Amino acid sequence: MEVVLSCLVGVLSAAAIYLMLSRDLLRFLFGLILISNAANLAIFTSGRLITGNPPLILEGQDFPVDEAANALPQALVLTAIVIGFGLFAFALTLTLKAYRRLGTLDTSEMRVAEPREE
Amino acid sequence: MSAAKNDMPPAGAGQAMAGWLSVAIAASLFAWFWQALGPVAAGEVIRYSFDWVPSAGIAVSFLIDGLSLTFALLISGIGALVMLYSTKYLAGHEHFARFFLYLTLFMGAMLGLVLADNLLTLFVFWELTSITSYLLIGFTHSSAESRRSALQALLVTGAGGLALLAGMILLGVAAGTYELSEIRAGDVAITEHALYLPILILFLLGAFTKSAQIPFHFWLPNAMAAPTPVSAYLHSATMVKGGVYLLARMHPTLGGTDVWFWTLAIAGAATAVFASLMAVKQTDLKQILAYTTLMALGTLTMFLSSDEGYAITAAMLFLIVHSLYKAALFLVAGIVDHETGTREVDRLGGLRRFMPITAAAAALAALSMAGLPPLLGYIGKEVIYAASIKMDAAWFVTAAAMAANALMIAAAGIVAFRPFWRGEHATPMTPHEGPWRMLAGPVLLAALGLLFGLVPGLIAGPLVDQGVKAISDGAAKPAELKLWAGVNLPLFLSVATIALGVALYAGHERVRSALRSMGEAAPSFDRGWDRVLDGLKGLAAWQTRILQSGVMRVYVYTVFVTLLVAVGGTLIWTGAFSGLPDVPFAELQAKHWGVVFLIVVGTAVTTITNSRVAAITGLGAVGVGVAIIFIVFGAPDVAITQLLVETLVVVLFAVAALRLPHMKREDGFPNRKLDALLATAIGAVVTAIMVTITSGPINRRLTEYFESAAWTEAYGRNIVNVILVDFRALDTFGEIAVVAVAGIAAWSLLKGPKSDETEETR
Does residue B515 lie within any of the structural domains? Predict the structure, then answer.
């Protein structure tokens, strides 16, 4: 299954990068969401996949059952999901604000910070 | 040129105090070093050390031996006299207190530099002298010339400083310690180490830029834009001697090889002869003195090339000789400028009638500079000749020394004889004798030149002998200092030099015009410097145009192409990727295929659609698919978070979409095929990395630790939660802070000033 997920991560990354290369800021945002998903899936998969055994310690025992899912990448992915959401929310607000001020979402027209040289 | 004249309003009490306070600091430092003379003369080495970064083995340590004590006494002693002089010279200047702050800081940095026993301590003080001298040279900051000179000095010595830092780190690595005394005492022979040549080149770059050896000499004459007391201080005993000090200090560690000998001998000789020719060419008192300073630096470098006891004695003695007469002459030049209003030698004459004390001090200092008995300069010259005939390449060193010394006699005549003793000229101001605070320095320093000449034993034991011992690490035998050494070859050389020098002085105006006409043809280092700076600016502008295009697509492209080349290239270069393994179809069930199908379709829809609703639906499908994967493979908490966040994303986007335009079709955008190619290539690289990682072994050490400690130590049964809120609680706290900051920033953006809205022109 790791092989399949590896390919899936590749597909997600390729689509994300294609969208991020667009001149349309909305498509860029979609790419941002996809690339966070790709990254989360990559971290998760690299910790190896174990079906059906969440990393929990049962009542009355001191350790999880053998062959429990890897807890470490799960903790990392949890953090990454939340941070990725923060990033998306901020980027979306920036986009809104930029559109209000500039009236366009075409990045090649957004030249306020670095105007074209005469 | 002097910034202050006597008719300016007097300084306030606070300002005057700043001056006297600086004098007091310098004088007490001098007194403190004075009491170290006894122990050092007895051969003792005083060392202080404090931990700085103990984990990296870095200490702040200081060492007082003959070499550092000589420098420390010159720096603090001449410093006190120069400061005393400045209280009058700069009286009433609007930045009087600032001047003394800079000068005192500079003195502190210089003392730190010569006393440091740790390479990194030395470097810190080295850079501090560059920065403080920048402030001093550019003190008259309203003048563009001052600013240019200050920046030039800073950039040249700063660049050398960077080279020096690299050399010090290499030396520290090679020797295994940053303590200079341990490097000298250690059993690692640096000169035979594989890194010797790079270390030597980097150290020499540092020393030669600081001490203005050819071809880095051009900043020094320009530094004359500084007020005269600053020139007197920086160019006699301090700043420019920093490089010479470094050469002397590193002599036992880096010296003794052919590279060392020839580099120092040739650079030193070239600098000495070139500079003494240039000195005779000048007509401005300060410019003449600036070039004679270069000559002295060249001579010192030349004699530090050798291991010979005489040569090191010559360097050590000439260091003291030069500091005394050069500080005195600069201060005299300042008095002349201050009292007559000009420094042009052609406009000065007969000043001895108006300023007899200044004239006497100037004469004594000039005689020492010319190397005439019974002054210390004479002994210095005798030892120089005695050394030069003993050194390797004796004819070369002797010829260079003789040419430079003869020209020095002419320069001494031009600076100190002609303005005072030759025919009178009308000057811009009616000349009169300088005030005592300005006379004290030159008179005392010139008198010391006479005293030490008559009684050389005063400095021989404690300073020169111990200095020679420090420079040669005890290997060389110091030469004996005496006024009359008998009839020998150095005496004949001296007599010949004096005859030649007097002849040069007699014809100096003809020599000057000959040099002038030659100089027109020669390339100018100063103009070359301007071209280098222009080139740098051009390069910066060019690369900014390329890298900072202002087009977001170009930035994104740069990032991803770099990623493709760096990561994909590494994969191919190292051969880590061994091909796609077989897909284990037997393991895969319908639910797995279903999820993969869901995600791929969602991704495809998002990528190709022109409808915002369709795109957000596709994204939702991808998010849910990823959440299902988390559920299937034992990560329920992650799945819940993923679903929650996915919902929030959709809601937020739906709200935002109401205020945003529809997406345009991309048919009109050029280069989308190229984008697709780049994206596919990176996707392939990502897959290759993932396959390589997952088909290798996994280290579960950390996971096992968390599994065993989650209940037994942290009393939690959900291991993921325990990691987040217990073991990595600080990370989670940071994460909360990030989200909170993002929230505040988003809120302030939306609630920002309404004035922006006026630009909403569609």
Answer: no
